[in-house]
Amino acid sequence: xxxxxxxxxxxxxxxxxxxxxxxxxxxxxxxxxxxxxxxxxxxxxxxxxxxxxxxxxxxxxxxxxxxxxxxxxxxxxxxxxxxxxxxxxxxxxxxxxxxxxxxxxxxxxxxxxxxxxxxxxxxxxxxxxxxxxxxxxxxxxxxxxxxxxxxxxxxxxx
Length: 158
Known about the structure:
This protein has helices at about 1-5, 10-15, 45-50, 70-75, 80-90, 135-145, 150-155, and strands at about 30, 35-40, 100-105, 110. By secondary structure, it is of the alpha+beta class. Helix 4 (about 70-75) crosses helix 5. The chain is elongated.
């Protein structure tokens, strides 16, 4: 009834009519256009937080929904790195990066996708166009090939 007649405030309708809003969510993922992050279709509560859910309220019937945060992020906000969007959408909201390497043309070397301050870290790779590599050697061979071994040694220096 609430989905059909009060789609602009499903949660308010359920609560206002004495229903248990905590049991009405499907936990599917949808985009929150204010934060550009994906949220789950559920009502925020201490119980949902304990379950590790990122509840953003119940998804309106016209919302496009997804089975995972990764699919939601890559489909709805493709200009944001999927790993970053997912990390910021799934509790405990800690963005640690992938630990893989990407090219830093500014520093003329390959750096790790992790917060600045860590070993070999160049910061979190925020742009989705950055290709991530398993190691500095592969990154250098693909992106800074003209530097040869100088790229690898510079990339592995602190």
